[in-house]
């Protein structure tokens, strides 16, 4: 038999006549389709950028606050005209402190103390919080009465806005919150170095206030902290226990099927419904106090539970059966197998899910509105049973305030909230990266 | 001893019990550990469970039942006119008695004595201690309050004794039961299994709680306002709740709220579905690994941003922008610079909600598109189809049921979304079709009706629960149907 | 018996065909997956109206080579092909060559039957539809019928063309996929272990079909089974560890191979 391939090169076939399969048109469609995809992703990213830019550009100034340093004369004439402070402790509490600050400012600016209009305008340049600030100085050390001390007081919100250049000066003077004379004073003070922008610690530590310049998220942070603590302490163990049962022990029957559907559904129930549940069960039925962070914590726990259960079950499922078989084969009981081997291996996944659930709970607003967390709380709550508010609820309340300075505060509070969420999510990502195991 | 101190005591006894149980088991085993059925720590666990669990149950029952028993006992001694009064009036009176009783424990003994003999001003003294009274105290109340305190004290004392006794009893019983043959591990594990089951029942209880509480409150509402007026009413005008009186004036028509909810949801879906779907397709079929690694998490950031932030964004940025741009457009077109888009409008709320929903649509559809087997993709490409033809003619039709499920889930989010609409949709309950005008939603009205003073007897408050159950039912149907479809879909390709 | 006489006829046919013209050829083909090289300088000719079988142990690169022939490797990230592969006279990796057009000329049938979740009719009509090969319903009907007939499936499915293709048995599904490929009227059909998921009876049916298709198409088939290669092909190429070990007429290959490794593989000494 001869080898045919040895007979030299074979003839090569010729290309057949090209068929028209509409290449041009089809590639145009292809390009259009791709373009839609790119546009869609671009649209999403654009609005993400816009949203962040909108918040940051409006809010970064909230971390600075305009303060005025003025030498305040703690005049006895104003504080205690009848010299009764030794007998009546209320005198020092009730004294007219804002006048002290106003007069000091007037002196600093060389304004005539008999010019009532000017004095009134000066008065509106200093924050109302000056009353408490000066009172505290006097109460701490009553001997200060009669002396002159330089005090840094908060400028009023509109002065703050004007100094940060947020007030549109092209608006006619009478429609403006701050008039030309006040602007002049601001410049005068700023040139002397008495009016400066300083880092705003108040926004982190102060409680609620009707004055934007004195309002802060301190109470809200504590309230949110309590709630997160409650969610963590309750939802994590309950969620993990429930997942272990459902994933490892529960027989596959209609009841467990129902629980499964039920959990998936609970994860998708609108959050506001949990608020109604909390209102009806925890407040109306169980008689827990309204506005308390314990109720908020319980409601958020119920809300977060499905998320944690779903994440935990996925983590448990990802542990290969061979690990279980190995432990069982050595004579470990099922319980020992799970608690000694499966659970530790699933832990990174569980914690990641928990952090994400917590982050979600931290940003949740609607259910908290219903259980009365929309409250004007100026004092720190000592226990979770005392009235408090939460960070997102504080944002909601400020968002409803009309004043320009509150827009800045709101954005500032949002930045704080987003930073917390960012930190939590980065934590989750690091956790996942470091401990993730691929089987 | 109060409940919390008692709890601490139980814990201490439990720790001691664990230690004793272990010791005893070790002593019994001697040098031959294998003679015991279970390891000594399980025996410790066994004694722990016996000494803590029954006592804990008793404590829980006692704490929840004893106040009722004490209060009914006290109530028996009330004067006749109080006993025959209406239930709500009785509750009010009892509230005052409870406050007095609580106040008495806070007062110094001399102050308390002046109250008891009737010389002191009850209201003033108590409010100084931070216990405000809802009404003027009547003479019989002081005796009742004293009786209440006395009985409560007795109950507490009995409870302490009983709980500690039970705990110690359990401890001794279980210690005696420890023997080499005792299957301590199995018993302890059974208790653990029981607690695991209890934990998973929380999910069921939550659902039951949601349904029961809302049905309960909503049925109060429907006893005041006929159900057909609520479900088919076209006017929403609840008036304000008049304090105390359960007046049912005002109209509670669901229709305008429901229409607003659906309309805003529709606008949101019109934004979210094309953008989300095309993003998902691009990510799954075209994007280079690098673009995917960047853009996918970035889009998911949109899902992590709290809705209150979207609400603020809508209110401060998008709303005013749409209003101003509409004024400009109107001015260029007609010369009249009057805005035709309101700052708060269906469009504003729907658009921003749509942006919020993009990542839901895209990540759900991404999962579903990538679940389509590679073989189908190859089959189509191998025949000479372009990528987009493959996507349009093979992948999307194959993934359609799953995608429909994903969209239904997204729609249920849109219906239940609260903060964006609260801040950006407006509060006017109207029936109209102009997307540039404000409309309101079910969720907005739930928030409106439940912020501020609550009166659980007035329809103005209770209507929120009727709205809530409507919302719950609506989203439940959407979710369950969606879950069903998606599950079916997954089974098909598994 | 009957089988024997058939193979005798076949051998006569073969001798005529081995002088057929070159349809495709690979010159120095190397394929890389990222850093890993999967094929080393493969030179292989595919002759017109011939069945060429690619055999070799798992992971030897035979499927990889098959997929280079219609650039299905393009769909795999970080896959790189060097060397020259020509169809007729044209280099198919030349930038001027359009991959869609190429795949319309070089069709493919996969290892696992992968009918689209559509009706039988739509499965077959899919190719003609995307390529615009028919203008109206009648033309589509004709293409669908003739393709199904060529795939030997027509009599089994002609009464249920509107039922989903996924409802057919495994063997029928694979013949449906062949019909789907045939409907585009390609010049070459690549088959990647088309019978590995089928039972023996269905396998015999598909092998018969390959036989009949040879009259109109050039066929390249990857197979695991030596017997199958011997039964269906006229030319056989043996791959081992990314190298083309031997290329020869099938009957020569199976009776008197040139290479020791081929001999060992065919005798079942490794694989």
From TrEMBL, chain A:
<keyword id="KW-0472">Membrane</keyword>
<dbReference type="GO" id="GO:0005886">
    <property type="term" value="C:plasma membrane"/>
</dbReference>
<dbReference type="InterPro" id="IPR035906">
    <property type="entry name" value="MetI-like_sf"/>
</dbReference>
<keyword id="KW-0812">Transmembrane</keyword>
<dbReference type="Pfam" id="PF11812">
    <property type="entry name" value="DUF3333"/>
</dbReference>
<dbReference type="InterPro" id="IPR000515">
    <property type="entry name" value="MetI-like"/>
</dbReference>
<keyword id="KW-1003">Cell membrane</keyword>
<dbReference type="Pfam" id="PF00528">
    <property type="entry name" value="BPD_transp_1"/>
</dbReference>
<dbReference type="GO" id="GO:0005315">
    <property type="term" value="F:phosphate transmembrane transporter activity"/>
</dbReference>
<keyword id="KW-1133">Transmembrane helix</keyword>
<feature type="transmembrane region" description="Helical">
    <location>
        <begin position="412"/>
        <end position="431"/>
    </location>
</feature>
<dbReference type="InterPro" id="IPR005672">
    <property type="entry name" value="Phosphate_PstA"/>
</dbReference>
<protein>
    <recommendedName>
        <fullName>Phosphate transport system permease protein PstA</fullName>
    </recommendedName>
</protein>
<feature type="transmembrane region" description="Helical">
    <location>
        <begin position="33"/>
        <end position="56"/>
    </location>
</feature>
<feature type="transmembrane region" description="Helical">
    <location>
        <begin position="294"/>
        <end position="316"/>
    </location>
</feature>
From TrEMBL, chain B:
<keyword id="KW-0472">Membrane</keyword>
<feature type="transmembrane region" description="Helical">
    <location>
        <begin position="341"/>
        <end position="361"/>
    </location>
</feature>
<keyword id="KW-0592">Phosphate transport</keyword>
<feature type="domain" description="ABC transmembrane type-1">
    <location>
        <begin position="258"/>
        <end position="482"/>
    </location>
</feature>
<comment type="function">
    <text>Part of the binding-protein-dependent transport system for phosphate; probably responsible for the translocation of the substrate across the membrane.</text>
</comment>
<dbReference type="Pfam" id="PF00528">
    <property type="entry name" value="BPD_transp_1"/>
</dbReference>
<dbReference type="GO" id="GO:0006817">
    <property type="term" value="P:phosphate ion transport"/>
</dbReference>
<keyword id="KW-0813">Transport</keyword>
<dbReference type="InterPro" id="IPR022182">
    <property type="entry name" value="PstC_N"/>
</dbReference>
<feature type="transmembrane region" description="Helical">
    <location>
        <begin position="462"/>
        <end position="486"/>
    </location>
</feature>
<dbReference type="InterPro" id="IPR011864">
    <property type="entry name" value="Phosphate_PstC"/>
</dbReference>
<feature type="transmembrane region" description="Helical">
    <location>
        <begin position="394"/>
        <end position="415"/>
    </location>
</feature>
<dbReference type="InterPro" id="IPR035906">
    <property type="entry name" value="MetI-like_sf"/>
</dbReference>
<protein>
    <recommendedName>
        <fullName>Phosphate transport system permease protein</fullName>
    </recommendedName>
</protein>
<dbReference type="GO" id="GO:0005886">
    <property type="term" value="C:plasma membrane"/>
</dbReference>
Automatic annotation (TrEMBL), chain C:
<dbReference type="GO" id="GO:0016887">
    <property type="term" value="F:ATP hydrolysis activity"/>
</dbReference>
<dbReference type="InterPro" id="IPR003439">
    <property type="entry name" value="ABC_transporter-like_ATP-bd"/>
</dbReference>
<dbReference type="InterPro" id="IPR027417">
    <property type="entry name" value="P-loop_NTPase"/>
</dbReference>
<keyword id="KW-0067">ATP-binding</keyword>
<dbReference type="InterPro" id="IPR005670">
    <property type="entry name" value="PstB-like"/>
</dbReference>
<dbReference type="Pfam" id="PF00005">
    <property type="entry name" value="ABC_tran"/>
</dbReference>
<dbReference type="GO" id="GO:0005315">
    <property type="term" value="F:phosphate transmembrane transporter activity"/>
</dbReference>
<dbReference type="GO" id="GO:0016020">
    <property type="term" value="C:membrane"/>
</dbReference>
<dbReference type="InterPro" id="IPR003593">
    <property type="entry name" value="AAA+_ATPase"/>
</dbReference>
<dbReference type="InterPro" id="IPR017871">
    <property type="entry name" value="ABC_transporter-like_CS"/>
</dbReference>
<protein>
    <submittedName>
        <fullName>Phosphate transport system ATP-binding protein</fullName>
    </submittedName>
</protein>
<keyword id="KW-0592">Phosphate transport</keyword>
<keyword id="KW-0813">Transport</keyword>
<comment type="similarity">
    <text>Belongs to the ABC transporter superfamily.</text>
</comment>
<keyword id="KW-0547">Nucleotide-binding</keyword>
């Amino acid at each position: 038999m001869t080898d045919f391939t040895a007979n030299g090169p074979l003839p090569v076939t010729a290309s057949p006549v090209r068929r028209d399969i509409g290449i041009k048109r089809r590639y145009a469609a292809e390009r259009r389709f791709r373009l839609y995809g790119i546009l869609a992703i671009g649209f999403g990213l654009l609005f993400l950028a816009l949203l962040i830019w909108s918040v940051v550009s409006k809010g970064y100034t909230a971390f600075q606050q305009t303060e005025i340093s003025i030498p305040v004369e703690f005049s006895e004439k104003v504080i205690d005209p009848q010299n009764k402070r030794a007998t009546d402790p209320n005198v020092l509490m009730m004294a007219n402190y804002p006048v002290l600050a106003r007069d000091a400012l007037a002196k600093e600016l060389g304004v005539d103390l008999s010019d009532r209009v000017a004095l009134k305008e000066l008065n509106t340049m200093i924050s109302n919080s000056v009353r408490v600030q000066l009172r505290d100085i006097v109460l701490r050390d009553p001997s200060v009465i009669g002396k002159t001390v330089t005090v840094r007081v908060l400028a009023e919100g509109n002065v703050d806005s004007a100094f940060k250049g947020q007030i549109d000066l092209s608006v006619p003077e009478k429609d403006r919150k701050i008039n030309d004379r006040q602007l002049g004073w601001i410049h005068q003070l700023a040139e002397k170095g008495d009016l400066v922008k300083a880092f705003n610690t108040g926004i982190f530590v102060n409680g609620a206030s009707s004055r934007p310049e004195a309002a802060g998220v301190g109470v809200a942070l504590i309230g949110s902290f309590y709630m997160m603590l409650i969610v963590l302490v309750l939802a994590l163990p309950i969620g993990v226990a429930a997942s272990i049962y459902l994933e490892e022990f529960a027989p596959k029957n209609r009841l467990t099927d129902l629980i499964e559907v039920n959990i998936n559904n609970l994860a998708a129930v609108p959050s506001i419904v949990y608020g109604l549940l909390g209102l009806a069960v925890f407040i109306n039925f169980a008689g827990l106090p309204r506005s308390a962070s314990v109720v908020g914590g319980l409601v958020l726990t119920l809300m977060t539970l499905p998320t944690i259960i779903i994440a935990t079950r996925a983590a448990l499922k990802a542990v290969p059966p061979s690990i279980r078989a190995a432990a069982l084969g050595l004579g470990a009981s099922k319980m020992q197998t799970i608690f000694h081997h499966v659970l530790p291996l699933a832990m990174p996944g569980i914690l990641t899910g928990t952090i994400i659930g917590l982050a979600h709970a931290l940003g949740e607003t609607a259910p908290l509105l219903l259980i009365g967390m929309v409250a004007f709380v100026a004092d720190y709550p000592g226990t979770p049973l005392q009235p408090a508010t939460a960070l997102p609820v504080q944002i909601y309340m400020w968002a409803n305030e009309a004043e320009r300075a509150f827009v800045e505060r709101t954005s500032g509070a949002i930045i704080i909230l987003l930073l917390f969420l960012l930190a939590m999510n980065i934590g989750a990502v690091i956790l996942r990266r470091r401990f993730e195991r691929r089987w | 001893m109060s409940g919390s101190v008692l709890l601490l005591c139980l814990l201490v006894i439990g720790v001691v019990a664990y230690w004793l149980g272990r010791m005893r088991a070790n002593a019994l085993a001697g040098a031959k550990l294998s003679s015991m059925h279970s390891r000594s720590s399980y025996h410790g666990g066994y004694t722990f469970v016996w000494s803590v669990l029954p006592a804990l149950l008793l404590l829980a029952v006692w704490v929840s039942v004893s106040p009722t028993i004490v209060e009914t006992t006290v109530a028996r001694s009330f004067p006749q006119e109080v006993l025959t009064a209406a239930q709500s009036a009785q509750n009010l009176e009892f509230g005052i008695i409870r406050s007095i009783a609580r106040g008495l424990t806070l007062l110094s003994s001399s102050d308390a004595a002046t109250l008891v003999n009737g010389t002191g001003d009850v209201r003033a003294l108590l409010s100084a201690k931070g216990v405000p009274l809802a009404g003027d105290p009547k003479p019989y109340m002081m005796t009742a309050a004293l009786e209440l305190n006395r009985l409560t004290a007795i109950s507490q004392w009995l409870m302490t004794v009983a709980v500690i006794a039970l705990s110690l009893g359990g401890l001794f019983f279980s210690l005696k039961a420890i023997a080499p043959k005792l299957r301590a591990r199995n018993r302890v594990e059974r208790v653990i299994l029981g607690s695991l089951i209890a934990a998973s029942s929380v999910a069921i209880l939550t659902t039951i709680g949601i349904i029961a509480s809302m049905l309960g409150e909503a049925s109060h509402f429907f006893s005041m306002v006929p159900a057909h007026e609520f479900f088919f009413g076209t006017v929403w005008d609840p008036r304000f709740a008049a304090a105390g009186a359960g007046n049912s004036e005002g109209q509670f028509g669901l229709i305008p709220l429901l229409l607003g909810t659906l309309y805003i949801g529709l606008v949101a879906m019109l934004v979210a579905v094309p953008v989300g779907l095309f993003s998902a397709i691009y990510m799954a079929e075209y994007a280079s690994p690098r673009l995917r690694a960047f853009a996918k998490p970035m889009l998911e950031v949109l899902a992590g941003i709290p809705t209150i932030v979207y609400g603020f964004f809508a209110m401060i940025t998008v709303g005013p922008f749409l209003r101003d741009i509409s004024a400009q457009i109107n001015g260029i077109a007609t010369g009249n610079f009057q805005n035709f888009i309101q700052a708060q409008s269906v469009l504003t709320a729907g658009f921003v909600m749509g942006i919020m929903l993009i990542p839901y649509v895209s990540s759900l559809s991404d999962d579903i598109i990538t679940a389509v087997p590679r073989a189908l993709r190859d089959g189509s490409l191998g025949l000479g189809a372009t990528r987009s033809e493959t996507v349009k003619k093979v992948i999307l039709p194959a993934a359609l049921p799953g995608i429909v499920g994903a969209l239904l889930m997204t729609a249920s989010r849109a219906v239940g979304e609260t903060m964006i609409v609260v801040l950006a949709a407006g509060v006017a309950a109207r029936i109209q079709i102009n997307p540039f005008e404000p409309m309101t939603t079910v969720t907005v009205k739930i928030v409106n009706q439940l912020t501020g003073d609550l009166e659980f007897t007035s329809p103005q408050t209770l209507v929120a629960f009727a709205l809530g159950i409507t919302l719950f039912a609506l989203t439940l149907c959407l979710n369950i149907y969606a879950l069903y479809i998606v599950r079916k879909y997954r089974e098909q390709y598994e | 018996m009957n089988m024997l006489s058939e193979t005798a006829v076949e051998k006569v046919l073969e001798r005529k065909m081995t002088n057929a013209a070159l349809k495709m050829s690979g010159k120095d083909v190397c394929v890389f997956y990222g850093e890993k090289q999967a094929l080393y300088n493969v030179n292989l000719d595919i002759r017109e109206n011939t069945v060429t079988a690619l055999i070799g142990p798992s992971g030897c690169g035979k499927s990889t080579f098959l997929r280079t022939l219609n650039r299905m490797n393009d769909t795999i990230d970080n896959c790189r092909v060097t060397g020259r592969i020509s169809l007729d006279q044209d280099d198919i990796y030349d930038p001027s060559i359009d991959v869609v057009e190429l795949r319309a000329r070089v069709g493919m049938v996969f290892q696992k039957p992968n009918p689209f979740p559509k009706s039988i009719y739509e499965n077959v009509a899919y190719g003609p539809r995307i390529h615009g090969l028919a203008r109206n319903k009648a033309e589509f009907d004709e293409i669908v019928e003739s393709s199904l007939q060529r795939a030997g499936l027509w009599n089994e499915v002609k009464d249920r063309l509107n039922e989903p293709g996924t409802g057919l048995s495994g063997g029928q599904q694979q013949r449906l996929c062949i019909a789907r490929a045939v409907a585009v009227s390609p010049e070459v059909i690549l088959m990647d272990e088309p019978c590995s998921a089928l039972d023996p009876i269905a396998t015999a049916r598909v092998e018969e079909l390959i036989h009949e298709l040879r009259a109109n198409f050039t066929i390249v088939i990857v197979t695991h089974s030596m017997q199958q290669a011997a039964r269906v092909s006229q030319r056989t190429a043996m791959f081992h560890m990314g190298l083309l070990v031997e290329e020869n007429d099938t009957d020569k290959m199976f009776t008197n191979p040139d290479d020791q490794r081929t001999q060992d593989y065919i005798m079942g000494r490794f694989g």
